[in-house]
Amino acid sequence: MTKNLILWRHAKSLTGFNDHERGLSEKGQKEARDMSGYILSFRKPDLILCSSSQRTIDTLEILKDQGGLTKTYIKDKLYLATQEEISNIVFSQSQSYKSILCIGHNPGIHELSLSLTNIADMNLRNVEMKFKFPTSAVAIFQIRDNNWQNIYTNENLLIVFMTPETLGSKK
């Protein structure tokens, strides 16, 4: 079975002074429901790694409400983590899993997405990821040779980049 890494930027959050404690807006809740359905229609993850911020946990809870119950770790180190930090956390947990979902923040999620694949090889439906990774966006990668070590290369296959807007236009 192929190994997949699913990177999901948290849904749209409320504004506020305490960044770590901001929950989801109404729009974010709807987008999280829509994107949860999309993720689960692709493949239920074997493992979920989630930042400890309220908005990422709220995003996770919506996924779980839709049947995405699986082994989950809430990681303080994923809060505003860099690309390298996210890669290291995923790799440290990866060896016995086929499909890992990581729920996190920009710019780390976007930068990791760009580092996982050769940008020049992106097809037209995925090219939007080069420029932005909006809230609730999801990037799904097939890991080269089913070897988690390859999350440190740009040789993985971007299967799809999906945003709430592109998902909405497909309904």
Overview of this protein structure:
This protein is an alpha/beta fold and 171 residues long. Helix content is 33%, strand content 19%. The protein contains 5 helices and 6 strands. The protein has helices at 26-42, 54-65, 83-94, 108-116, 164-170; strands spanning 4-9, 47-51, 71-75, 99-104, 138-142, 157-162. It has a 6-stranded mixed beta sheet, with helices on both faces. Strand 2 (47-51), helix 2 (54-65) and strand 3 form a beta-alpha-beta unit. The two termini are 29 Å apart. The model has no long low-confidence stretch (mean pLDDT 93).
Helix-strand pattern, N to C?
EHEHEHEHEEH
| Radius of gyration, whole Å | 15 Å
Secondary-structure content class: alpha/beta
Major sheet characteristics: 6 strands, mixed
Distance between the termini: 29 Å
Q: Averaged pLDDT, please?
A: 93
Beta strand count: 6
The stretches of 5 or more residues where confidence is low (pLDDT under 50) are none
Helix content: 25-40%
Which band does the percent of strand residues land in?
A: 15-25%
* Coarse shape: globular
User: How many helices does DSSP assign?
Assistant: 5
- Widest sheet: strand order? 3-2-4-1-5-6
Highlighted features:
171 residues; alpha/beta; 33% helix; globular
Offer a quick outline of the entry.
The protein has helices at 26-42, 54-65, 83-94, 108-116, 164-170, and strands at residues 4-9, 47-51, 71-75, 99-104, 138-142, 157-162. With 171 residues, the protein is α/β, with parallel strands linked by helices.
